[in-house]
Design goal:
The protein has one helix at 2-21; strands at 34-37, 43-47, 53-57, 60-64, 72-73, 89-93, 99-105, 110-116, 124-130, 134-140, 147-153, 157-163, 171-174, 184-188, 196-202, 212-218, 227-235, 243-246, 252-259, 265-272, 280-281, 292-300, 306-313, 326-334, 345-355, 376-379, 385-392, 399-406. By secondary structure, it is mainly β. Residues 1-29 have low confidence and may be disordered.
């Protein structure tokens, strides 16, 4: 008995000593950006139910079947072969994994809608959904029966179309409405909702109007005016195209930028629990109350899970005049964004993506418009964030489409 007790004590001491020297578990590698491709800008990311990821960048389209680790540029439909840096595009994937790809060809030309059921290997196209001069189209395929398309006819007039046969034919429910607001964001629809929403930059044409972000409410079944309502967000205009997103809890989120006390720009968000009828504005994203933050794009997932991607420089001023500033791509993420005091994690996704001024739209050209008019983010059904942006090689001024996947989790609740 004595020998057994001594042996037991010796073994316990040995295990304790070994445990003290045991190597720590290998931490999960920090996500790193990958290059999607070298063609295009204004990237848009979409996640299919089967796990395939897609990024459109003007009339270029890329896919990944390994969670974004590697990307392949698809051949694309023949109508997308007339490519230039002034074209536009949009993508969406419906619940049956059908990919929708819409674009204009050539610049300010016809709007086409093409679909693919084999991950972009082959395409079926309606090459002239809206003929003539068009610009800045968006598509949304939320169900297996209803798909929507918006483009700007004559470059400025909002045109809304509806397909009930998965994109084979399109009915122009409203074309040339007379609303001259081409600075538009994506189409949105909450599950169970019949209306379709779109975030719009309203510059204001009358003296009493204040430039702000507003929401167009399209009513696809209407027999009269297709736009049943225009709702005010009270939010200032962002530099780039506007963004908005529904969370899975039905809350609607919008992001923008406003002047900060240091003379730069800070990122601000607002949320709505009633489809944009009323809004609650949040405090600025931490770290943007000084310096200049632009190109904000919001994404939303589960309840309270919200993220914003944006470009940032510690310098303060008009982004179009910051000729010596170096910019980084940032990602701010919260899992309690709908609480009175949200907690944000701000990550520098990639440093030195551009040096010099940044501008957007038709009055801007050259390196200052290297990213086009927006960048993009998405939080998928598993609360994984997918980010895409544009990086410029300052030695060659060549650009690349970049991507990073971030899977975070809410901090543990203290008891």
């Amino acid at each position: 008995m004595k020998t057994t007790l001594i042996t037991f004590i010796w073994m316990a001491l040995a295990v304790s000593a070994f445990a003290g020297k045991r190597p720590k578990p290998t931490p999960t590698p920090v996500p790193t950006p990958v290059t999607v491709g070298v063609d295009g800008n204004e990237p848009i990311v979409a996640a299919a139910p089967d796990g395939t990821l897609y990024i459109s960048a003007l009339q270029h389209i890329y896919s990944s079947t390994d969670s974004g680790a590697t990307w392949t540029e698809l051949l694309g439909p023949i109508y997308a072969s007339s490519i230039n840096l002034n074209s536009d595009s949009s993508i969406s994937v419906d619940p049956g994994n059908r990919l929708y790809f819409t674009f204009d060809y050539p610049y300010a030309g016809t709007t086409a809608v093409c679909t693919s059921d084999d991950r972009g290997v082959t395409w079926n196209c309606n090459p002239a959904v809206v003929p003539g001069g068009t610009d800045r189209m968006w598509t949304l395929a939320p169900t297996l029966t209803d798909d929507y398309e918006v483009t700007n006819e004559g470059l400025y007039e909002t045109s809304f179309l509806h397909s009930s046969d998965r994109g084979t034919t399109w009915t122009p429910t409203s074309v040339g409405s007379g609303l001259l607001e081409p600075q538009s964001g994506p189409l949105l629809q909450r599950p169970g909702m019949t209306d379709v929403l779109q975030i719009i930059k309203i510059n204001g044409t009358l003296p009493q109007e204040t430039p702000e972000l507003k929401v167009y409410v399209y009513h696809p079944e209407a027999t009269g005016s297709i736009i049943s309502d225009i709702r005010s967000t009270g939010m200032p205009l962002p530099l780039a195209l506007p963004s908005a997103a529904y969370g899975r809890d039905g809350q609607l989120w919008v992001a923008s930028e406003e002047l900060n006390a240091a003379g730069g720009k800070q990122v601000v968000l607002a949320r709505s629990t009633n489809d944009g009828v009323t809004w609650s504005k949040l405090a600025p994203i931490p770290g943007t109350t000084s310096g200049t933050a632009i190109f904000s794009w919001v994404a939303a997932g589960g309840a309270g899970h919200v993220g914003v991607i944006y470009y940032y420089t510690p310098d303060n001023g008009d982004p179009g005049s910051l000729t010596n500033s170096t910019w980084s791509t940032m990602w701010a993420e919260s899992f309690n964004a709908d609480s009175p005091t949200p907690t944000w994690t701000v990550t520098n996704v990639e440093s030195a993506i551009h040096t010099g001024a940044i501008c957007v739209a038709a009055g801007c050209s050259g390196d200052n418009r290297f990213a086009g008019d927006f960048i993009n983010s998405l939080i998928d059904a598993n609360d994984v964030a997918h980010l895409t942006w544009v990086k410029e090689d300052m030695a060659t001024t060549n650009t690349t489409i970049r991507y990073e996947q971030i899977k975070s989790s809410a901090p543990a609740t203290k008891r």
